[in-house]
Amino acid sequence: MNPASTEADVLAEVAWVLMVGGFAVLAATMGVLALALRRGRRPVPPRWWIVGGAVGPATLLAALAVWSQLRTAGLDAPPPPGALVVAVTGRSWWWHVQYREVGVVTANELRLPAGRPVHLALMSDDVIHSLWVPALGGKMDLVPGRINRLVMTPRTPGTYRGACAEFCGEQHAKMALHVVVLPPAEFDRWLAAQAAPAGPPRTDEARRGQQRFTDLGCAQCHAVRGHADGADAGPDLTHVASRLHLGAGTVKNDGGALADWIVRVQQLKPGARMPAGHHLPAGDLAALGAYLAERE
């Protein structure tokens, strides 16, 4: 009900008109019923039932159905030239996001420019998921073996919460996708920063964390471009410190959250395909946390 894109404007308008139309049908039907009850045992003129109970509601509902089809007809049209193409792949239970034009890979967070059409190419690597960001547009399924399309034109900068709208397993409820809509110039700066590889660790503790990241096998699942390339079984961590949340919206990515996530991942998100690091020495956890906190 708070649309922030061209497509969401259409859907909100259709929703309001259908609700008002539905209420009008209900009110008219109840009015005819009330008049009939007031007449007691006296016979009701047939035209009351015909007009108020059948022809009137059927005509109004048919008109609403035709109007809503015409009003939403353009929502599944092909994206216009110049649209930003972003591939979003659903996995249990996180989102793999790829800006193919510039080779940027991120996870669980979608950043878009305001005022530019966006073509989301939606896929799934395992089961059926469904992407729904209510403020920005309609819902679309992500089906293994096919690519579905969702086109939206974000209008208002801000952060909007999306979710998986198709039950997909144990942690379905913790599979959020935050969409951050930025002014065009700010989006260009963010995308250029994301395209750069991770910088070298700046402190001794972070350098030790980088070594432990390799020794502990974290690089078998997580890529850090410039340090550990190639793996994609888990979210890309090249710029993980710049994201708003960890674990697909499970916890806010603020001070100490990265180290806490490593220790309590199975408590915070049971079933996640990442082993908990509660057995690690405190020094190793601090070093890993320092290393990841520098991946901005």
From TrEMBL:
Entry keyword Membrane = yes
| Location(s) in or outside the cell | Membrane; Periplasm
Q: Where are the transmembrane segments?
A: none
What does the UniProt keyword field contain? Copper, Electron transport, Heme, Iron, Membrane, Metal-binding, Respiratory chain, Transmembrane, Transmembrane helix, Transport
Write down the Gene3D superfamilies for this protein, in alphabetical order.
Cupredoxins - blue copper proteins (2.60.40.420)
One of its GO biological process terms is: ATP synthesis coupled electron transport
Q: Which NCBIfam families match?
A: CoxB (TIGR02866)
Protein's recorded name: Cytochrome aa3 subunit 2
Q: Which species does the entry assign this protein to? A: Piscinibacter gummiphilus
